[in-house]
Amino acid sequence: MGAAPIPRGARRAVAVSLLPGAALFATFFLVPLGVLLVTAFSRWGGLELAWTGLENYRRMLSDPVFFAALGNTLFYAAAAVAVQVPLGVAAGMVLALRPRGWEAFRTVIFVPFVISGAAYALVFSMFYNARAGLLNNALAALGLPGDRDWLFDTTTARWAVAGTFVFVVGFVMVLVMAEIAAIPDEVYEAAQIDGASSWRQAVHITLPLLRTVIGTVILIRLLVDIGMFDVVFILTAGGPDNATATLALYAYRAYLNGEWGYANAVGSTILVVGMVLIVAVRRLFRVGEGR
Amino acid sequence: MHDRGSSVLAGFAAALVILAGCGAGAESSSSDSGEVVITCATCQQSPTDPFLQYNYEAAQRFNERYAGTYRVETLENPNAGSSDDRLQYYQRLAMADDLPDLFQLNSGEIRALQETGRLHDFAPDLAADEEWAGTFHDHVFDALRGPDGQIWAIPQQRDAIGIFYNAELLERAGYDAFPPTWDEFEQLAARLRADGVTALALDGDWATMLMWVHLIGTGGGEDFLIDGITSADGWADDPAVVAATERLRSWHVDGYVNADAFSGEFQNAAAAYLSEQAATIANGPWFVKTNLTGDAASPGLYEKTGFAPAPGWSAGERGVIVVSGAGWVSGATDERALTAVREFVRFVSSQDEVLAQAAATGASPPVAVDPDAMAAAELEPLATGLAEEAAEVTHRYPHVRVHGPAGFGVAWRNLWPAYVDGSMPAAEFLDRLAADARAQAGG
């Protein structure tokens, strides 16, 4: 079914009403995007702007730090999806059954999601503190070595950073609960008449019907995590030896160096990675195709 | 319809006015009364940074004294104190020809910003006023000069930096004075470790670099700290630098350093010293004001604390870091604004003001001060004691964080933990540090 045509007399009014939105969209999205894409092929530090073709991309592909940052970014995104989505879906499915105290559990699980990344990072910097942090003190109390600097040891830094956000499952849980609430009761009633157990209902009815929302949360998580900056910046600033650096942090360093064109080339790469992920996940989970 | 169109246009007009307002930055101006108003980007109030707070109070006194003639107007900004973003902030303003009339930078940042050609050269001002120029200590302008004799900043301070120590903890370990050599310092560290005390509080940034500099400077590496640090390579070829780097790493490996020595947060190191878990910490005289006399310090810690020059590699070869690489910079171009800027920098380098700054921050004056006035000011005895001792030590050298490439701190924080955990040898660490420090500085 197509949209109803706009009456001839109202077209001008509609066009005028769209102008502020279009102007804002152009100012805050199209123009920056255009600047990003053009200057990505330039040497730009503010004072000069010189077209350099693919030079920024050649340099990027020859810089091992770029690949370290790309690897870390994909690692964080994959870790978030691999841990948050199964845990979030499981929590959502359990709480959707309305067990005793489910509202309190829902609140407790959701609250970490609304805490800002910066505040979260500060809390975890204290948690991981090698001298006085909770983690090392707990390990020491158990008779285990309790003096490791988790965030600044090259063998543990990346895992320690990932550990700060992969268990924040509130967002996935809430979306899953909302989706389950929208499943008609008749479906479950029919299954019960056929003698299906709760487990079989969850596996054969609920889970398949969650396909779209699972695809959506995976998409959102991936897009959030490929632009990750604040948590890493506060916890480790990308160190030690770039073991935790992300693409966004790598671009930020280039920006600090006055290499704005190079920073934008990195930014355009993040854009491309994001678009590839969107297409892949949409196809895999058939997002937008309904149930 | 007409009304709706008017509303849209009015909305656009309002948006343009707002956008235009966003662009209004550091313009100096004259009021109707003829008062010259100059902007200052490092004169905002700060409850945590005593230097910024002093600047704010000095600007208020200046405004009071020159009411009706000159006035300093504060530009509130997040880069007023030292930060990794500060250089970029001023580079952006320089490109827009919108630098504040007054702000502060260290020498590494000044070297990077001079390339914009927007900084005021104070050399002619000093040449034209020999009496004023003569009040400054020797060599305080060394780190602030340009390649053609320009003087880009009026120094704010000239501090001797040594090592604070907890005399009570040292006494318990059998030392009634601070060790005069690095070997003895390590013997002390081993005894302290045996007693469960951390010998040295480090942070992976400022304080760690201070110890690196002390080890280099007292080991024959003064030339490196003055000149070599500004070159992009050859750091790993300097035996003093390699020896200092390896020795500092060994202190981590041997357990002489606090476990959280890589966070880049000075307060982590300070907490270890202030809670008496660590026996020593390197920092400048402002540490007294900012930490030692604060609520976080253990009761009575100030009375137990001494402030000594760095040990030497051999007896009698002790040293101090002398910091004079930060100062007042101006981006003013208008002659009326420059007149006000000149008056302001004369004002803050006057005897009364440098003593007020010393009392407020612990920083030592960049100008010679009458001894009677100095005594009357009753300055912090720990700081003045080291300043007097500094005149007698064998080695004096600048701090890399102030005198080195502007990107040195970022590069160090990234690479130092990896070097200490054995991910790379000293030569690779130094080569990469040199390269990254230059790259981070936009070089």
Automatic annotation (TrEMBL), chain B:
- Domain of life of the native organism: Bacteria
Q: Which SUPFAM superfamilies match?
A: Periplasmic binding protein-like II
Instruction: State the UniProt keywords alphabetically.
Output: Signal
Indicate whether Transport appears among the record's keywords. no
**Keyword Ligase listed:** no
Identify the stretch annotated as signal peptide in this record. 1-26
Q: What is this protein called?
A: Carbohydrate ABC transporter substrate-binding protein
Q: Which organism is it from?
A: Jiangella aurantiaca
